[in-house]
User: Fold this.
Amino acid sequence: MIIRGVAYLGSRNSLSYNFELGKENQIIIPKKFATGSSVRIIDPKGNEFLRQSVILPSGTIVDFSDMDLPGVYQILNSNEVVVCLIALNLQHSESDLTKVVPKDILNKIERTINTKSSKNTKIDFISDKDDIIQQIARIRSGTELWRLFILLALLLSVAEMVVRRSAVAEQPQ
Assistant:
């Protein structure tokens, strides 16, 4: 956030852009800032690569449609001067917090895994908040093995004491 804030405050309005990933993104660099037909792009991880741009009478067009990393990109002209900053953000649909219908969730699960295993998978949706306590109680009322393990631990400790006592009694003094 600090880097973006400083970048936005320190740049000109016409030379900073905000786009979403996965969409057709093109920028026009004004002719006074564009020198040459290629620009150097620095991605958020610091990787640098050259990109050929289309030269028009009004400026240079740079295509950003194939970028897949969110963050702030820098565009440098052939004189190694930063001429543009571009912020590529995640799509708004990825941060949509509206409720999803359980049927849509089941459809997505069936598309991602094969149909044989999805038929054997049991998915339970909790529709009411008060129903959560009842669901937990229902799940807990299944096979509770902890009581058996405590009983087994007590029996093993008694057996260990008997074996220890008989081993001490058989030892010659």
About this structure: Strands lie at 16-20, 26-30, 38-42, 48-52, 54-55, 59-63, 71-76, 82-89. The CA atoms of residues 153 and 159 lie 10 Å apart. The chain has a mean pLDDT of 79. Residues 2-93 form a domain with the Immunoglobulin-like fold (CATH 2.60.40.10).
